[in-house]
Amino acid sequence: MSFKTLVAILCLVPVALAQQPAWAQCGGQGWTGGTTCVAGYSCVAQNSYYSQCLPTGTGTGSGTVTSTSGGSSPSATSTTPLNTAAKAAGKKYFGSATDNPELSDSAYVKILSDSTMFGQITPGNSMKWDATEPSRGTFTFTQGDQIANLTKANGQLLRGHNCVWHNQLPSWVTSGNFNAATLSSIITTHCGTVVGHYKGQIYSWDVVNEPFNDDGTFRQDVFYNTLGQDYISIALNAARAADPNAKLYINDYNIEGTGAKSTAMVNLVKSLKAANVPIDGIGVQAHLIVGQVPSTLEANLRQFTALGVEVAITELDIRMTLPATDALLAQQKKDYQTVIAACRAVSGCIGVTIWDYTDKYSWVPSTFSGQGAALPWDANLNKKPAYDGIVAGFAS
Ligand code: 9MR
Alpha helices, DSSP H only, in the chain? Predict the structure, then answer.
């Protein structure tokens, strides 16, 4: 290739991020560029560090197609929209998370905005503390409002995410060395203002996110270290006062099956109820791994709803070690079906949200090196077998 040709290709890269040109890199560890190829080319993993756009059907390397424009991967056959399927099963919604940068992708937004497909949306980042109160007392809602307005226009429910969490906190919160009274008032102001801003627009709020360690002890973050577990009731009370009609949730991961962490959640909800602290729901995130859906999922959802709260699956995705083979995609389909069927079987499980709907925008590859393909749509917005698994789960 001549130098001029190379320069010409490099110049095209910024405008072609979503669709890599022929022969270009389209994946691999640490790769942050586009992961799909122009028509006629498929993204083929050569090794875990490098995937390349090769003519569809001629892939060499490991030979495993991770995303295609030609449609040679197994795909879904069901035409039932997912929110329609959820409602037919008596659920309030099937939903998806989204994030602001993705909203400039019109093909993506078209699917997201179909309320027969998604009856609910969760903003993945833009209602978090760092986004809404980056400095003390200064609130910004532009990004959150963009997503709230989209759901309004589409006739979709909105889940608020989140009020109090150890992560994505501005440093003025983590490094302020506040005493208990001051931090309590900071939480009350933050949750009161953010929940109040969206009053009347929200179905449910993840008021407290991820309060536990995996062994069921409380996570030692700035809130717990300063206030003990009282920070939880402070946040819940502030949220209730700000929007009496929003359902207030505590949300966590690794509470899908029974075990120490789920027991800790049960005990927390019992103690909040005993103290008349408002609590309406438990959010089960469900960031799962192909082939490893906990066998106690349904029993666990039942022990939660037996407390007199509702349950929602709030952040479902089921990741695999890449490359995505036909066998892994088939197992993933079964796993999605198992999760959805468990929610279907438990009447207090009111809805399911996937943590974005396409592999194009999943958080997984940037967090778990070498893993991904966790969602029911591939990076080219084609439905994967997992889609059929979801439909079957709601029908079972
Ligand atoms: O999807 C979110 C991702 O874009 C952020 O980089 C990440 C930062 O912590 O948070 C992700 O969402 C998390 C959610 O808020 C809470 N449960 C785990 C989710 C995945 O990390």
Answer: 3-12, 82-88, 106-112, 129-132, 142-154, 171-174, 180-197, 222-227, 230-242, 260-274, 297-305, 326-345, 364-367, 385-395
Active-site residue flag, 133: no
Q: What is the gyration radius of the CA atoms in the chain, in angstroms?
A: 22
CB atoms within 10 A of CB 214: 14
Kindly state if the Cβ of 365 falls inside 6 Å of ligand 1.
Answer: no
Q: Which atom of ligand 1 is nearest to the CA of 168?
A: 9
Angle at 197 between CA 183 and CA 180, to 5 degrees: 5
Residues 154-196: pLDDT tens digits?
999 999 999 999 999 999 999 999 999 999 999 999 999 999 9
Q: Using a 6 Å cutoff on CB, does residue 165 contact ligand 1?
A: no
Nearest CA to ligand 1 atom 8: 168
- Beta carbon of 125 within 6 Å of any ligand 1 atom: yes
69 lines ligand 1 (CB under 6 A): no
Domain ranges of the chain: 24-55, 82-395
Q: For 20-77, write each residue's pLDDT tens digit.
A: 788 777 777 667 788 887 777 777 776 566 677 776 655 443 434 444 433 457 999 9
Give just the sign of the alpha carbon dihedral 167, 173, 175, 179: negative
The reported pTM is 0.85
- CATH 3.40.190.10 assigned to domain 82-395? The reply is no
Distance 124 CA to ligand 1 centre (A): 7
- Name the closest-CA residue to atom 6, ligand 1: 363
